[in-house]
Amino acid sequence: xxxxALRVSVSVCxxxxxxxxxxxxxxxxxxxxxxxxxxxxxxVEFARTLIEAVMEESGTPGMSVAxxxxxxxxxxxxxxxxxxxxxxxxxxxxxxxxxSVSKPLTAAALGLLVEQxxxxxxxxxxxxxxxxxxxxxxxxTRQVAGHLAGVRHYDGDEFLSAVRYETVSDGLxxxxxxxLLFEPGDRFSYSSYGWxxxxxxxxxxxxxxxxxxxxxxxxxxxxxTQTVADYTDRIILHRTRFYHRTNDGTVVNAPYVDNSYKxxxxxxxxxxxxxxxxxxxxxxxxxxSAETIAELWMPQVTNDGESTGYGIGWAVxxxxxxTVRAGHGGGSIGxxxxxxxxxxxxxxxxxxxxxSQAPTGGLIVALITEAFLDPEMLASAGTGPDMSGQFECVxxxxxxxxxxxxxxIGGGPASYWGRIAWDNETVDRVIHxxxxxxxxxxxxxxxxxxxxxxxxxxxxxxxxxxxATSGGGADRVDCARx
Length: 482
Description:
Distance between the termini: 34 Å
Radius of gyration: 23 Å
Oligomer: single chain
Structural class: alpha+beta
């Protein structure tokens, strides 16, 4: 079933949260202060508005963000608390669980071994991991890394594993006896366990343990000094505490987990600035050759020729033969991450939060990226038509009605305020507006921390017409004045 824009949002439960957020706590570091040129002042203000709004609605104790443009980190800032009980603020150095954003990091290690001629992506997996049982069909590293091999994902409460696995090979025991879900290549089926197998390939091909290989060959060469494996028994400076929101809206400490079973697919800690540095390394040949990066970013296809939109450890979007977006989301117990690159514009944005299902991905990443790529678009000229009043709005996907609601707008073109009460009982409040003679933009947030962007390009006395986007595509929105 197609997912409509208003049905898709990065959100948590809509109930009132019992956790009281602090006032914004800025990242106290020279980088965050010194690298915010005046031209990005409106972009920073807009991004802060979004982050503070989603933190308030979701109850996320702490978040951190970094934006890099053309080789420079132009903004980095922490919000809220790394430790809510002790009131330790989020600093730029605060390390968060990045979940599946660990996969692009591991893909870089795999790419290095391909360049060295030590890994053939299309060879049977047993060439590098002879202990892995043969299945009904052979599987290759390329298929495993692209979620096409039929290796299963988590089952039941395996995501909450608290077992310590001393080696990568030990972790394979969780799933290595299971049959494949389908013939490799038949369909895309996301599997973090598949990336456990990728880390075993890296060990078999390099002759080195996985974590030391990552530290020596991926992190150190590009200055990722704040990226480490999430060892539960080690003192790791600036590691955040981890939180979870219950069904009744209360923020509590997240369950104890040990991520030693999935280092490659979701076991690293990092910071937004380190992730931006990692992204920058893919705009040149600092870490990998252009040819290798292109291979990692090439979307794989199923046996019937359908693109998966996923390369080797990267979710990607192409325009013709040009990669216009590359990135990954990350969800883990007590941590959520959004990481997106815009290669043509040489832009990277990373957002992390220290709560399960924190609102760090989807539309918030896209809006912040656009804000820094085009700061001028945020300037509210205040010369557009007056939109204040009451409206009945209908959102349509082609000929199908997606949503209907009543919108109240106050203020003027320089700064609107308002709310939308949808028929499904969701209420959005306006947190940003920008007006010009050509269009008027609204960004709203709902009680589940879901963002909605509405861009009205046709405005007259009868009403408004434009598009609404919330992370799952753009739908037409028509609002009739009441």
